[in-house]
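Example 9 (inverse folding). The structure is encoded as follows.
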């Protein structure tokens, strides 16, 4: 029996009341149709979209009007594009799962990405930090050691072994992607460690290096800031100087804004890509216009390597009042409203611009005709390896420092021991491993959401964490289409470095 695919997404187009955009969840199709055709498709759905097992999905837009059967030609197009199917709901769900697992198999064969944590220590005391306990609770003081140089050599020697686990041969021309994270990875005292990794990796073959840093000690790394060495930095700024200096502070309570700004100036001048992360809540979002004006006044927006992105602060510890936090969808709506009265906020990236950019690429004439599907949420589930000062290996940097969650170790003889049970637990999370995601029309665009946040909300690792994705996706796809038809330039410089 012919029915509407369970993975058909309906996108309202503001100002185009007679038309809608259809997006298919696993064929990758994007099509503008009349509302009459959309109404017909909705009438052929055997049931409303299933509710998630955990969390909330946004409601689909209602479609009014008389149901009229489209022409035979239109019906054939709808079948070919995947919107009409003869598969049962169960068979189509199984098809979605097969596609996800095939994509995941391909992802796990990709070259690994490496993250080095020189130390869990940090020179700042940001109240919302998810690692706050490591610096403030004496019971975790033992974690604040640094990687020693012999361990750095063992980590470098472990990389070809890990690549072999991904089916990759010992090709000396293979490019390695190596990031530094902490704690604060670019503390002045960590310079010899960073040098050892950069020199050692380049001796093994081509490599690129980046860091997630607070930017306070970059004076010790000026000679490394270049397109060929430390080529990318992600630095957090939490508002204009006065607000930032209340949030991102040294242990003695002093602020950091001007010091960080001076270092950003230098990094941009030396050709480094700088991605500014803005951690926002209901208390500091109002300060964004002043911050945007400061970015422009400093000339940062004129550098091709400068970009920004916004992220909602999460209540990671008891110091953060949950009532002050946003969901990602609430944050995006708040930014959009601010932009209407403050055009200078164009320099501040919204949290979901990657969704919009992805849709624009599908729609463009020289576009990729298929979207970049996400069978899992991030690289923690396929190819990321994080090394700390204890020779432990982790999949996710928000679950480091606890030996129970490590996926492996580097032994004293330099060999790599993978903890198969823990590794498989992390690497198996996909939209196919969660029954709610398998039935969701947005699954391959969303990836199932963050595992850590899913655990925090539901207690279950393989649960979904939707974070309003349905509304976010439809809104950004609608914007992408309207920009496409008016010829608006893409203008997207990329988001967070840690997505590499």
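The amino acid assigned to each position is listed next.
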């Amino acid at each position: 029996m012919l029915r509407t695919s369970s993975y058909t997404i309906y996108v309202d187009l503001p100002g185009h009341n007679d038309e809608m955009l259809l997006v298919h969840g696993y064929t990758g199709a994007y099509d503008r149709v009349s509302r009459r055709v959309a109404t017909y498709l909705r009438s052929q759905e055997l049931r409303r979209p299933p509710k998630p097992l955990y969390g909330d999905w946004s409601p689909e837009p209602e479609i009014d009007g008389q149901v009229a059967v489209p022409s035979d030609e239109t019906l054939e197009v709808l079948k070919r594009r995947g919107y009409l199917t003869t598969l049962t709901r169960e068979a189509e769900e199984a098809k979605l799962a097969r596609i996800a697992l095939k994509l995941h198999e391909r992802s796990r064969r990709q070259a690994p990405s490496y993250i080095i944590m020189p130390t869990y220590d940090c020179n700042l005391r940001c109240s919302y930090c998810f690692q706050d306990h490591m610096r403030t609770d004496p019971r975790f003081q033992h974690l604040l050691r640094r990687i020693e140089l012999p361990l750095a050599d063992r980590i470098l020697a472990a990389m070809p072994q890990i690549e072999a686990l991904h089916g990759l041969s010992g090709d000396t021309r293979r490019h390695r992607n190596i990031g530094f994270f902490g704690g604060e990875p670019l503390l002045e005292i960590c310079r010899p460690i960073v040098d050892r990794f950069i020199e050692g990796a380049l001796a093994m073959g081509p490599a690129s290096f980046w860091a997630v840093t607070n930017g306070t000690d970059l004076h010790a790394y000026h000679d490394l800031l270049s397109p060929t060495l430390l080529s990318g930095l992600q630095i957090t700024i939490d508002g204009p100087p006065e607000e930032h200096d209340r949030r991102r502070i040294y242990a003695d309570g002093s602020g950091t804004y001007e010091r960080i700004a001076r270092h950003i100036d230098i990094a941009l001048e030396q050709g480094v890509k700088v991605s500014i992360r803005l951690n926002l809540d209901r208390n500091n979002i109002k300060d964004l216009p002043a911050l945007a004006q400061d970015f422009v006044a400093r000339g940062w927006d004129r550098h091709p390597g400068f970009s920004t992105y916004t992220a909602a602060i999460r209540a990671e510890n008891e110091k953060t009042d949950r009532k002050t936090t946003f969901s990602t969808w609430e944050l995006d709506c708040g930014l959009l409203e601010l932009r209407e009265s403050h055009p200078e906020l164009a320099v501040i990236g919204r949290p979901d611009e990657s969704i919009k950019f992805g849709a624009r690429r599908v729609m463009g004439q020289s576009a990729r005709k298929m979207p970049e599907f996400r069978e899992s949420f991030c690289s923690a589930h396929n190819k990321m390896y994080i090394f700390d000062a204890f020779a432990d290996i982790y999949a996710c940097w928000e679950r480091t420092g606890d030996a129970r969650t490590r996926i492996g170790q580097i032994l004293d003889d330099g060999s790599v021991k993978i903890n198969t049970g823990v590794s498989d637990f992390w690497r198996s999370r996909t939209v196919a491993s969660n029954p709610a995601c398998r039935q969701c029309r947005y699954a391959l665009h969303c990836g199932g959401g963050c595992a850590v946040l899913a655990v925090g909300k539901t207690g279950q690792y393989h649960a979904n964490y939707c974070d309003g994705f349905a509304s976010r996706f439809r809104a950004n796809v609608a914007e992408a289409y309207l920009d496409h038809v008016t010829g608006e330039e893409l203008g997207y410089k990329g988001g967070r470095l840690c997505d590499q």
